[in-house]
Amino acid sequence: GMPSAVRIFEVGPRDGLQNESTVVDVQDKVAFIRRLRRAGLSAIEVTSFVHPRWVPQLADAEEVIAALAADDHDGVTMPVLVPNERGLDRARTAGVRHIGVFASATETFAQRNLNRSLDGQFDMIIPTVRAALSEGMDVRGYVSMCFGDPWEGAVPLSQVVDAGMRLLDAGISELSLGDTIGVGTPGHVTALLAAFADAGADLGRIALHFHDTYGQALSNVQAGLRAGVTTFDASAGGLGGCPYALSATGNLATEDLVWMLDGLGIRHGVDLGALVETSVWMASRLGRPAPSRVVAALDGG
Ligand code: HMG
Ligand code: MG
């Protein structure tokens, strides 16, 4: 059966903005994050401590974290993405306690996104996980290209499970399976989750991260719900994409997810009206409408 409640993991300020060529200033990023918090989101990935040359949009990570430091976080977690120990150092210095590491399920994307081989990326990531855990930080892990890869095509389930289990075995609290380019379909989601269960993974620690390139994201969420997944990543307004993944477009829009969950009677804690206003405001900063269908339907409606 379906769960009665889910946790929405908001990635708009990070995955949503990282691909935007218009640089959003620190004040607007901070306003975006505060509005998301007021809209009821309880986990908001706020920025990345990656190399600033690789993702110029998020080169102001220290400033964003510093501006948020004095806020009353009110139980809201605000993790950041960290690729390596240098990123962990920066996050630690900024006072961050929740991080996310990210691996690729494919050779080509490991090279393009992390400048490492499929195997070699773990020599960078696993020591980062261990160091963060030894300091009592919470560590989430992502695997990208879990369904298809723009250069390699379909990705074997066993390759995804292998990458994911390496992160789970290193002690991450949650594994987010990313459909980076949005090619997945529900049967594939079901098969991938079954493969993780067969490998001994606790599905309670698995989250799903969909991009809506082919319009399959909500159907894929339903497949996840049926398999017992209760954490879903989404991006306000449907912003997003990865600058290093050919044909990666917007993330599943948080508003679209909320609309479907409301219809299913599944609790999520988000105020849809406040969220739509936030996405409309951010769209005005970026100079074009939010990709979300629900935002389009409700804005001015
Ligand atoms: P590299 O060039 O191999 O780095 O890049 P390196 O380890 O050789 O270091 C080179 C220099 O960079 C050194 O400086 C380091 O100190 C510096 P130097 O000694 O030459 O002066 N450096 C750093 N500086 C600041 N912050 C750092 C850092 N690390 C090294 N963290 C690296 C390797 C991982 C750094 C690079 O490939 C990188 O930053 N990649 C990030 C790419 C990225 O952010 N992609 C988007 C996020 S993933 C995603 O979107 C997918 C997801 O949404 C899920 C899904 O949809 O699938 C999560
Ligand atoms: Mg993503």
UniProtKB/TrEMBL annotation:
Coiled coil: none annotated. GO terms for biological process: ketone body biosynthetic process; L-leucine catabolic process. Keywords: Lyase, Metal-binding. GO terms for molecular function: hydroxymethylglutaryl-CoA lyase activity; metal ion binding. Residues 6-276 form the Pyruvate carboxyltransferase domain. InterPro entries: Aldolase_TIM, HMGL, PYR_CT. Belongs to the HMG-CoA lyase family. NCBIfam families: PRK05692.1 (NF004283). This is Hydroxymethylglutaryl-CoA lyase. It comes from Microbacterium caowuchunii. The lineage of its organism: Bacteria, Bacillati, Actinomycetota, Actinomycetes, Micrococcales.
